[in-house]
Write a structure and sequence with these properties.
Number of strands of chain A: 21
Structural class of chain B: alpha+beta
Largest interface: A-B, 44 and 41 residues
Oligomer: heterodimer
Largest sheet of chain B: 6 strands, mixed
Strand content of chain A: 25-35%
Distance between the termini of chain A: 30 Å
Radius of gyration of chain A: 23 Å
Largest sheet of chain A: 8 strands, antiparallel
Shape of chain A: globular
Number of helices of chain A: 12
Number of helices of chain B: 4
C-alpha cells in the first residue's frame, strides 16, 4: 500500500479530507484551495453558520462611534448607539441598497444615504424619508430600519456575529476557547483590554485556510523564520533548541472543541506582561518585575506564571486568530477569491498600560508580526509559494497533515499537526453537512 | 523658506541625497545605504489608516530604531529572508522635493515617491507616498536622522508586505 493516495483518486469517495487512524495518515485534497465551487460552498456552509468576529468594544468608545468593515462578505457598520449599546448593522439602504456609511470610521449622529437622502439613527431606526407622502398606507417607517445581523453576541468585549438565527449561543460555541481568551485578558489588572490604534490590512495571494494552518503551525518556525531567530540571537535572546528538539521550548497543540485550537508553549521570546528579554533593554527590567509582581498578587503565583510564562496562538473557528506571543495580535481574514484573502490585524493591550509599557508592547509586536515585521512577510511568502504550487493540484493532489497521528491527544506537540487536524475535521464536517 | 534654512542647505543638496539614496536602495547596496543615516536614526512606515500617528501609541507597519534597522539590513541580505528571495527589483522616482523647516540642527524635508516593485512569480506592486525626513549635517555630510515613508494607499491590500526598504 502506498503511503499517500496518488493521482486524483479519492480513497473513500470524493472526500476532501481523508483520515486513516490505522495507517496514521491525514490528507487534505488541494482542490479545496483552488476551487471556486468549494469557495462558494464555504460561504454558505461555514461563514453563514459560524460565529464570525466583528470587532472589540474598545473600538467604540463613545455613543455614535462607528467602524465599517466586511463581516462574512457583508458590509457592516459596527457602532455604538446613542444609548451606548453596541450594534452590527448591515450597511445597505432599505430603499435601493447603497451604503449609508462610506467612511472607515468616525462618530455619527445619523447615517445618511447620499443616493435619495434616507437617514437612519445610529441604532438603525429609519429617521426620515424625503417625500414620504408618496408611499402608500402599507409603508411602515418603523419597520424600515437598517437590518441588524441575525445574531450579535460578545464574550469579554470580543463581538461576534452569526447570520444563522438558529445558531448555538456564542458562549457555548466558544466553549474551552474562552479559557484561553481569559488567560490573554488576565494581563490587565482591571480585566479590560483594548484594541490599540493603527490597523494592518493586507492581502495574501493564497487561500484563507492556509493562514489558519500557518498561525498555529510551529513546525515551520526554524525554516521559515531563521532570520527572526538570528535577530533574537543577535539581541542576546537564547533561541537555540535543546538537543533533539525542533524549537527552543517544547510546546503543545490543543484541541479546544468545535473546531477551535491553540498552541500552548513555554515562553522563550519575551512577553511585555511579564517576561523580560534583552530586546527590551536593561532599563525595562524593573518595570517588567513590577508587572510580574502585580500578576502574582492578583492571581497567585501559578496563574501569574500561566499568564506571563506561556504563549498561545489561538484559532477561533473559522477565521479569527489571537496570537499571544511576542505581543498580542488580533487578526481575522476572509476569502476574497479562492487564491486570495484579506487580512486585518490589530495589537491588543491592557487599558492601564503606561506610555513606556505601551511603547514596549508595540516595539515587541513589530519584532515579529505584521507586514513589516521580521517574520510575517516570510509567512506570506510561504503561503503564496504554496498557492502557486497548488496550480498542479490535479497531478499532486494531497497535502499531508499526518505529523503526530500516532500520539494521544495530550501528547500532540505544537510542531505536530494534531491541532491543524482539529480545524480540518470541523471544516470537513460543516462542508459535508450541506451536501 | 527662511534664511537660516537657505544658508544651511540647498534643495539641490537634498535632492542629491534623495537620488543617491534611491540608487543605493534600488541596487540593494544596503550597507552603503546605512552610512547615509545617523547613528541614532529611525525608520517609520505609519499604518495606512493613521498616517500622522506617533509610534509610541499607535501600531505602525514599521517603527525601527537604529538597532533594529541594522538587524533589518542583516535580514534583507540573508537568502533566508524569503519575502525578498529572490530579491525584488525596485525602481523609485522621487519628486516634489521641498525643505519644509529647520529647528536647530534638524532640517525637515519632504518628497513624493513612486516605487515600482517587480518580483519573480509576483504582480507589479506600486508604492506611492510621501517621504518626510529629518536631516542633520554631520562632518560636512547631510545625513538622515529620521526617515518616514507615508503610503497613500487606504490599506496595504494587494501591496501585501512591506518587505523591502521603502
Amino acid at each position: 500500500m502506498n503511503y499517500m493516495p496518488s493521482g486524483t483518486e479519492f480513497p473513500s469517495g470524493k472526500e476532501f479530507v481523508v483520515e486513516d487512524p490505522k495507517a496514521q495518515t491525514f490528507f487534505v485534497n488541494r482542490e479545496v484551495f483552488v476551487s471556486e465551487d468549494v469557495s462558494e460552498r464555504e460561504k454558505r456552509a461555514i461563514f453563514d453558520r459560524s460565529w464570525i468576529y466583528v470587532g472589540h468594544a474598545s473600538e467604540l468608545k463613545n455613543p455614535g462611534d462607528f467602524k465599517t468593515r466586511p463581516v462574512a462578505g457583508r458590509p457592516i457598520i459596527f457602532c455604538r448607539d446613542r444609548e451606548g449599546q453596541v450594534r452590527a448593522l448591515i450597511n445597505s439602504c432599505r430603499h435601493r441598497g447603497a451604503l449609508v456609511c462610506r467612511e472607515r470610521e468616525g462618530n455619527a449622529r445619523q447615517f445618511y444615504c447620499m443616493y435619495h437622502g434616507w437617514t437612519y439613527h445610529p441604532d438603525g431606526r429609519l429617521k426620515s424619508v424625503p417625500g414620504d407622502d408618496a408611499y402608500g398606507g402599507s409603508f411602515m417607517k418603523d419597520e424600515m430600519g437598517l437590518v441588524p445581523v441575525a445574531r450579535l453576541e460578545q464574550y469579554r468585549d470580543f463581538y461576534f456575529a452569526n447570520f444563522d438565527r438558529n445558531a448555538v449561543d456564542l458562549s457555548t460555541y466558544l466553549g474551552k476557547a474562552k479559557d484561553y481568551i481569559d488567560i490573554v485578558i488576565d494581563q490587565s489588572p482591571s480585566g479590560k483590554m483594548q484594541i490599540i490604534s493603527g490597523t494592518q490590512e493586507y492581502d495574501i495571494r493564497a487561500n484563507w485556510k492556509l493562514l489558519v494552518e500557518n498561525s498555529v503551525d510551529d513546525y515551520h518556525l526554524i525554516s521559515t523564520h531563521s532570520t527572526w531567530l538570528n535577530y533574537m540571537r543577535n539581541s542576546g535572546v537564547n533561541v537555540t533548541p535543546p538537543k533533539g528538539e525542533l524549537l527552543p521550548t517544547r510546546g503543545f497543540g490543543r484541541d479546544l472543541g468545535n473546531g477551535h485550537l491553540t498552541t500552548d508553549n513555554p515562553n522563550y521570546r519575551g512577553r511585555p506582561v511579564a517576561r523580560w528579554i534583552s530586546v527590551y533593554g536593561e532599563e525595562a527590567k524593573a518595570d517588567i518585575d513590577a508587572l510580574r509582581n502585580e500578576l502574582v498578587q492578583r492571581l497567585g503565583s501559578a496563574r501569574a506564571a500561566r499568564v506571563a510564562d506561556t504563549n498561545r496562538n489561538l484559532a477561533i473557528f473559522p477565521n479569527l486568530v489571537i496570537n499571544d506571543g511576542s505581543s498580542v495580535t488580533v487578526r481575522h481574514f476572509y476569502p476574497v477569491a479562492p487564491d486570495r484573502m484579506h487580512v486585518t490585524a490589530w495589537a491588543l493591550g491592557p487599558v492601564e498600560e503606561t506610555e513606556a509599557q505601551r511603547a514596549r508592547r508595540l516595539h515587541a509586536f513589530l519584532t515579529f508580526y505584521g507586514p513589516g515585521g521580521f517574520a510575517t512577510p516570510d509567512d506570506v511568502a510561504a503561503l503564496e509559494a504554496a498557492q502557486l504550487g497548488f496550480a498542479a493540484w490535479r497531478e499532486v493532489p494531497w497535502s499531508d497533515l499526518s505529523r503526530g497521528m500516532g500520539k494521544a491527544p495530550d501528547e500532540q506537540l505544537a510542531t505536530d499537526e494534531g491541532h491543524l487536524r482539529v480545524f480540518w475535521r470541523k471544516w470537513h464536517e460543516l462542508m459535508e453537512a450541506r451536501v | 523658506m527662511n534664511e537660516i534654512v537657505a544658508s544651511t542647505v540647498s534643495r539641490a543638496e537634498v535632492e542629491d541625497l534623495f537620488y543617491h539614496e534611491a540608487d543605493l536602495l534600488d541596487s540593494w547596496k544596503l550597507d552603503e545605504w546605512l552610512k547615509l543615516l545617523t547613528d541614532d536614526a529611525t525608520y517609520y512606515v505609519p499604518p495606512n489608516d493613521k498616517p500622522d500617528a506617533d509610534a509610541r501609541y499607535t501600531l505602525f507597519t514599521i517603527a525601527d530604531d537604529i538597532v533594529r534597522l541594522r538587524e533589518r539590513v542583516i535580514r534583507l541580505k540573508d537568502p533566508n529572508c524569503h519575502a525578498e528571495f529572490p530579491l525584488s527589483r525596485t525602481r523609485r522616482m522621487i519628486g516634489n522635493v521641498r525643505i519644509t523647516g529647520v529647528d536647530g540642527d534638524v532640517i525637515s524635508v519632504a518628497a513624493n515617491f513612486i516605487i515600482h516593485r517587480y518580483r519573480h512569480n509576483d504582480l507589479l506592486r506600486v508604492f506611492v507616498g510621501q517621504y518626510r525626513h529629518k536631516l542633520k549635517r554631520q562632518g560636512g555630510l547631510l545625513k538622515i536622522a529620521e526617515r518616514r515613508a507615508i503610503l497613500d494607499a487606504e490599506e496595504l491590500g494587494l501591496l501585501g508586505s512591506v518587505s523591502f526598504i521603502l
